[in-house]
Design goal:
Strands 1, 2, 3, 6, 11 and 12 form a six-stranded mixed beta sheet that branches. By secondary structure, the protein is α/β, with parallel strands linked by helices. The two termini are 44 Å apart. The longest helix has 21 residues, at 27-47. It is built from 19 helices and twelve strands. Helix 3 (59-76) runs antiparallel to helix 15 (352-362) and helix 10 (215-227) crosses helix 11. The protein binds alpha-D-glucopyranose (GLC). The site of alpha-D-glucopyranose has 12 residues, from helix 10 and strand 11.
Length: 443
């Protein structure tokens, strides 16, 4: 075990209990949840069964968890079992499930697997235990500072990062080499290369991106926005940049990719896995996605095995390309009956040993800096030095408690603009005003 196993007094931290009590108005459902928890725990108490920790994950994330780290943890801790619940694919839908469970007052989840954007909301609502005393300063310093910062709210730490994430641009090295092209630095080059390879019949599509109305759309958009020199919400002063000319340029670029058939007409319905499947089948030159694609696209049966490269997203002249900081970390539900066991699990899952294994299986971005240069990881994934460079350009989605609502506004209006239900100007004016109203009034 890498960490000192220090149990801590979780009872001290309960400042937000009032919020929970106010929210307990879904009495019927609440009673059902409570009853199931009691029914689950009675046999456990009577027969000395292991403690079961419930953990909800997005479905694509569940596989790498199942392949190893859970089994290893359970082998080392025979008194604890992890009950992994596979949720929907979209992070915002999993967030909704956690949120409604917490609103009911007694969530069935012990461990909370949180996207990088959830902490301020969950912590402000009082749904999480304060983990600030869990790790020494020396331990914390081993993680990437941005991943740790994403787990803090008002100075307290609520989430320990298990892995980071970065949006990257994948390109087909083989096709670019054959055509004599360098990987694109600008959006214009990305367009030109796509068009040329398409005209030569080498590919069906140039560029794949996630255009469905969900959180992935917001994550993809902050990168393009950054590439045009724009911004969404400045977390320091809550200024909103959605109705600025840079935002309209970013939307115009995305719309052009579809209108000029660089991107498939179905783009506005795609999530990560839809785009990965098309790219992996060899039909496209470029893909914007996360590093989890790498081991799948390089799998034994993949038609594009050993044919891809990654780089930072393209940009417009004079602007720096951006990568969206993603990632996942673990917190403990304040309503958990097993906080000490949950803390043990967090210590193991975020340890160097478990992360190394998790990364070797899933190709994820480490949250521990040392793993970027770990010999075993680098020999399997030579692109990690490139990833480390990209990590320095990370753009945060606004780390504010109202993030889920702010993102929902952007997703709705951006999707309306991309699918021609509204003009980009009208859509972004409405999005900017709605966001300003929300941030002014807080609801
Ligand atoms: C990835 C990222 C996460 C992001 C999500 C969007 O899972 O790690 O931060 O919100 O994709 O689809």
């Amino acid at each position: 075990m890498v960490f000192t196993m220090k149990p801590f007094d979780f009872n001290k931290t309960n400042p937000q209990k009032k919020i929970l009590l106010n929210l307990k108005h879904y009495t019927g459902i609440f009673l059902i949840v409570l009853l199931s928890i009691i029914l689950l725990s009675v046999p456990q108490a009577l027969s000395n069964q292991p403690v079961v920790l419930n953990l909800l994950l997005t479905a694509p994330d569940a596989q790498p968890w199942k392949q190893g780290i859970i089994k290893d943890f359970e082998a080392k801790n025979p008194g604890i079992r992890i009950n992994l619940i596979e949720g929907p694919n979209a992070t915002n839908l999993v967030e909704d499930l956690y949120t409604s469970a917490f609103i009911l007052g007694e969530s069935p989840y012990d461990l909370v697997n949180m996207d990088v954007i959830w902490t301020p909301k969950f912590a402000a609502a009082g749904w999480l235990l304060d983990l600030s005393n869990g790790l020494t300063a020396e331990e914390l310093a081993k993680f990437s500072p941005t991943d740790i910062e994403a787990g803090r709210y008002e100075g307290k730490l609520y989430r320990i990062p298990i892995r980071s994430d970065l949006g990257v641009l994948y390109y087909r090295k083989d096709l670019l080499d054959q055509g004599g092209f360098e990987p694109p630095e600008s959006f214009t080059e990305l367009f030109k290369i796509s068009q040329s390879l398409k005209n030569q019949g080498k590919i069906n599509w140039g560029y794949l991106w996630q255009g469905r109305q969900y959180e992935g759309l917001a994550a993809m958009f902050v990168e393009v926005l950054q590439g045009f020199g724009g911004f969404w919400v400045n977390p320091e002063n809550l200024e909103v940049g959605l109705d600025k000319p840079e935002t309209l340029k970013a939307i115009s670029f995305l719309k052009d990719t579809i209108e000029q058939e660089i991107s498939p007409p179905g783009t506005t319905t795609y999530m990560e896995e839809d785009t990965r499947r098309i790219f992996q089948s060899g039909q496209a030159a470029f893909l914007r996605s996360w590093p989890y694609v790498w081991p799948l696209a390089n799998g034994e049966d993949s038609p594009i095995k050993d044919k891809i490269g990654i780089k930072l997203m393209a940009s417009s002249p004079g602007n720096m390309g951006g990568t969206c900081l993603g990632g996942w970390g673990l917190g403990i539900a304040k309503s958990s009956k097993h906080p000490q066991e949950a803390w043990k699990a967090i210590q193991y899952f975020t340890s160097e040993e478990a992360q190394r294994q998790f990364i070797l299986k899933g190709g994820f971005v480490p949250s521990r800096r040392s793993l970027f240069t770990d010999p075993e990881i680098v020999s399997k994934y030579p692109h990690y030095s490139q990833l480390l460079k990209i990590a320095d350009k990370a753009v945060l989605r606004p780390p504010i408690p109202q993030y889920a609502q702010v993102s929902d506004i952007l997703q709705r209006y951006l999707s309306a603009a991309l699918t021609n239900r509204m003009t980009p100007e009208t859509a972004m004016e409405a999005a900017a005003n709605e966001t300003r109203r929300l941030l002014r009034t807080g609801d």
